[in-house]
Specification:
- This protein is of the alpha+beta class and about 230 residues long.
- It has a domain of about 140 residues: minor pseudopilin epsh fold (3-Layer(bab) Sandwich).
- Helices cover about 25% and strands about 20% of the residues.
- The protein has 2 helices and 10 strands, in the order αββαββββββββ.
- The strands form 3 sheets. It has a 4-stranded antiparallel beta sheet, covered by helices on one side.
């Protein structure tokens, strides 16, 4: 006696995915049926995945755009102030370096400032050193402007007629600057600053904020000041 197998539709088979069908052999005397292994359960349909809608994405982008528009001016002023401060500190460090080199090497050092080209640098005077392997040159930030100010020196009023009499001084060779047409701070081998050096350097940003590099009261070095006083 021949037994046939039960046919299942594709949709019915999908509900029992992963189950192993056990069919009776046509030649056996077992009842004609289709069974499933123990513990086999019909598969459930997967739940829909939560996601952002197009309107929600547009709303988030609009909020981010408004936040950037509000914070952009504040960040711009912040970075501009940082640029002004860092440029002043780099210029001050170069004055310290030039003064140290002048004392240690026994050679006058020139810190020159090119306001038109926006550059400054440090090198030894060519009258003592024809080639300076340690010479450096820097470009000022394009958003900044530098200006060298040389004030006229005034003689103290308590000097008597003796100051007008000629005095014997040591012979000093004339200065031969590497950039004779530019404002130059001269650091002498004795650690002092030449009288021909500018008393102040002014760094100004586009928004009008500025920092000053001024000689100290003893006129032996420079310091950073927030105002011209």
């Amino acid at each position: 006696m021949t037994f046939g197998t039960r046919q299942y539709s594709a949709g019915r088979s999908a509900q029992f995915a992963g189950c192993r069908l056990l069919r009776a052999n046509p030649g056996s005397t077992a009842a004609s049926s289709t069974t499933f292994t123990a513990g086999c359960k019909p598969s459930r349909l997967s739940k829909p995945v939560d996601a952002f809608t197009l309107i929600e994405l547009i709303l988030v982008m609009a909020i981010l755009t408004m936040a950037v528009a509000v914070t952009a001016p504040v960040l711009s002023n912040f970075f501009r102030g940082r640029s002004l401060d860092s440029e002043a500190r780099r210029l001050l460090a170069l004055t310290h370096g030039g003064q140290t080199r002048a004392v240690s090497e026994g050679v006058p050092m020139d810190l020159w400032i090119d306001a038109n080209e926006g550059k400054f640098g440090l090198d030894a005077e060519p009258s003592y050193e024809t080639i300076d392997s340690k010479a450096v040159e820097f470009n000022i930030d394009s958003a900044l402007r530098i200006e060298a100010i040389k004030q006229a020196s005034t003689l103290p009023s308590n000097l008597g007629l003796r100051s007008l009499q000629p005095q014997a001084v040591a012979s000093v060779p004339p200065a031969k600057l590497t950039h004779p047409g530019l404002q130059t701070i001269r650091f002498l081998p004795d650690g002092t600053i030449a009288e021909t050096s500018p008393q102040k350097l002014c760094l100004t940003a586009r928004d009008g904020s500025s920092l000053w590099l001024s000689q100290t009261r003893d006129r032996l070095s420079y310091e950073i000041r927030s105002s011209d006083n």
